[in-house]
Amino acid sequence: MQKRCSRCGNEMDIELRNVVYRKRVKIMNVPVHVCVDEECDHSQVVDVIKDDLKSLMEELGQHPQRQAIEFEEMSELSNLLVWIANEKVNSTVRELLGEKVNELLDLFLLAQSLGDEKWMLELRERLTKIMV
Length: 132
What we know:
Number of strands: 5
Order of helices and strands: EEEEHEHHH
Distance between the termini: 8 Å
Mean pLDDT: 89
Largest sheet: 5 strands, mixed
Structural class: alpha+beta
Shape: globular
């Protein structure tokens, strides 16, 4: 997921940030690309989660009630990044990603053995979002 800044051309890191919607809703742990150049400081939401964030904002509407939402409950990528950030072991991101993919594949096999098409579709979508 390496990306270059559209303003200055430097590399961008991924950070989990809070996004405030309509000055009333704090959406926590949103994956955001952040330029490594402190003078530029450009940031933008990671492309893969834009649809999830947009859907959430549409669901909240134009006049949402004051609240805080944990985005990792709605976005597989955000969930994965929060999980990796919270891991205290000496594993690489690649190893942790592999564990998560294997976990989802195991669940997919279970759903398949049960003939649960809806669950299989959900798991397929979750896998697609973290394997981009």
